[in-house]
Write the structure tokens for this entry.
Amino acid sequence: MTGAAAHVPPAPPPAAAARRHRHLLDFEGWTAEEVVSLLETADVMAQVLTRPVKRVPALQGYTVATLFFEESTRTRLSFERAARAQSADVISFAAGSSSLKKGESVRDTLRTIEQLQADLYVVRHPSAGVPHQIARWTDRAVVNAGDGRHAHPTQALLDAYTLRAALTEAGLPPQDRARPFAGRRLTIVGDIEHSRVARSNAELFTLLGGEVVLCGPAALLPRELGRLPGVHLTTDLDEAASGADALMALRIQRERLGPRRLTSLAEYVARYQLRERHLALAKPHAFVMHPGPLNRDVEVATELADGPRSLVERQVASGVPVRMAVLYALLVGRS
Amino acid sequence: MPETANLVLKSKIMSAAEFERALKRIAHEVIERNKGAGDVALVGIHTRGVPLAERLAGLIERFEGSRPPVGKLDITLYRDDLTEISLQPIVRRTEVDFDVHGAKIVLVDDVLYTGRTARAALDAIIDMGRPAAIQYAVMVDRGHRELPIRADYVGKNVPTSRSEIVHVRLREVDGEDGVELWERAA
Amino acid sequence: MRLALRGGRLLDGAGDRGTHDLYVKDGVIEGLDLGGPVDVDVDAEGKLVTPAFLDLHVHLRDPGQEVKEDLASGLAAAAAGGYGTVVSMANTDPVVDDPGIVADLVARAARVEGARLRPAAAISRGLRGEELTDFAALKAAGAVMVTDDGVPVADSRLFRSACEYAAELGLVVQTHSEDPTLRDGGVMHEGAVSQRLGLPGNPDAAEAVMVFRDGEVARLTGARVHIAHVSSRRGLEVARWLKASGAPITVEVTPHHLTLTDESLCGFDPVYKVAPPLRTTDDVAALRAGLTDGSVDAIGTDHAPHTLAEKQQDMLTAPFGIANLEVAFPLLYTRLVLGGALPLERLLWLLQDGPARVMGWPAPRLEPGAPADVTVLDLGSERAVDGARFRTKAKHTPWQGEALRGWPVATVVAGRLVHRDEG
């Protein structure tokens, strides 16, 4: 008789917890721990996609509806794949189709769609805040797939997922599981003002312990963003690139901005295109990222886009597993 | 946790010695049934099936001279109750590094109860490839099957009531081996 | 028709007149404690009896947008808010840029039970900012003010001409002071909140720049220019400076700019979308300070009703405007007077004598012979705001559910009881 191990009653099933979030609109109210759990779940989902049968029955019986008031075939297909890979049913509403009527209020559109009894809405809209409005009007789950300039949380998640894996493979794994980007710097270059990718990445990267530098033309760099914790602003790309662990370029759309907002494209390229020289200023292992689709030799010089440090293809590939993890996290444990 | 607060130890079903003996017997049965351990692979079902599978692999190596590969399987994504439960299980990595196709797989778990976990494990394995055979080893079979599932190798049969909990203790996890029967206090 | 308002405390711009029964006969104030038979009896015991308010800035949406509001619902809502007279804006459909439309408004309003209507007419045809309207004819038809409110008059030369004609004819020019290209499609105040939320911003500089332009042209022409809905510290400072240096301008502030900030937009609810936008706590503090230091001449509601469906569109598409006629006084009384930031007398002045002075009208008094426009206010009881009970068609309100005091329980206009709150 050892007299040692006192009889300890069996613990409840390990690692099941009350589902803490109804929606993923942005990262307001999310803890670093919750985000890292999502990334770890995405790891498992990525495994599923390497098997002969690239599907699991986890979300069988659930229905996911994609409401894309703003068209984006790539993102919509990525979400739909993420739903189907977990055996959920999918209903698609796309901007061009007659099912999303122009001039109809979001509220009225939602009323029509609610008849179809989806469990979760994936919403993209040209105006900030529509996913938040929909979340107020429905008791179903809502995932923000991009709302105006405000947020694109799953993009930030897949960027974090990709960078975290790349750093680990480069021999630089996180020291603290819940702060995987502690001591790391992400530099984002481009039209920051109009970019939901910039906002969500700034929000998420700093939540996970890192520092963010936002860089771009002066008329497109909102001053007040520099007040956010862990965020710095600069119009100088050399300064922004120095010491960065990752350089992320954003799409520039000059036709949309116009000549009253942006000097010529040639000047933009001269001052803000990512080149070898910037990689040399960054950390030795630094990576090149872009949310896509990339304008070759505009935002990123071709050698960098196709070079060994580019994570662009991996970013694209990580979209489905990350979105699978998000759907799982928002649907399972709802009752 | 509220769960543990209401539990009362009823009896000790297996001592550490009985546990070890049962595990050795299972190892011998696996070797005998499969005419050697050459093409056998063990897959432990998270969580406690994994250390059990590792132990079994060690014993088989001791008796046969070669150690079968051991995989770890998380069945969360194959559960049949995900639309009903109110908690959200954390999904863990599945690590099956050998080729499932044509293999003789022995699934290993601590307790066989309703059979739903085993059903999920079968579906998960089959989605990875087409094994030659799947067998099933458990330390305790406690009855109350809800599906037509049976274990090929059983450490001990223990009739239980639904209010009881069978707790398989492992020295890797709990400090000592054994099987206990606990009951929910009224 | 004779009315008695019994036992209330009588207060107007001349002072506290004590607790009395106030008698009204044939559309004018008759006197105090006169006794005798009356047709209508109103119990005002424990309440405040004061001249009905004057609002120089409401959007009644009539003609053409009656789904949002019409004369009947708008003038009833005004009366329910304690208002006796409102000046209606011209950005309807068609725009009030023609004397016939003005005359029609005046005629129809006379048949509606509610506050009095004094129409404003547009400065430019169709509000397009290109061609002047016929100010003299519009005045003759009943217009008391000219304004393109809803939009600024971008062309300074046109604005100057408008001021010259208005000065000649004795019309007040009301301005919506925002530089349209600096505003650049902004839907909320440009600041830390808008930049974080990713919503296009409208900087306070857009207002300050235009207030300066409007004030200088007023000084140049001698026109009485009333700057509507000043929303920012900068805009108010510019206006203050202009006044001090001799520009004949007056300043209006709205109830929502005195009580709400840009943080309200964090939930992306278009019910808070208004032009000019809700700004920062610092701007609110500056506007409140302006209420007592002489910078602000009048409180105007800028009552701007829209349908629920319109306000349930997305933040970029939803129209600008907050409907607040019925909640204006209780809101300002509760937040500012009871909050200690503003004496009651000053609040009443900003709703009565102040706007009257802007228009060059006699200050409203509870004296025999004065027009019988009176409101009875219950300063004691607290009640939650319930949009469903509003007379306005715009029942969705930013203040839904908030507990306020100072509800108007009765309003008399031209000697007729046009509002009575049954409780």
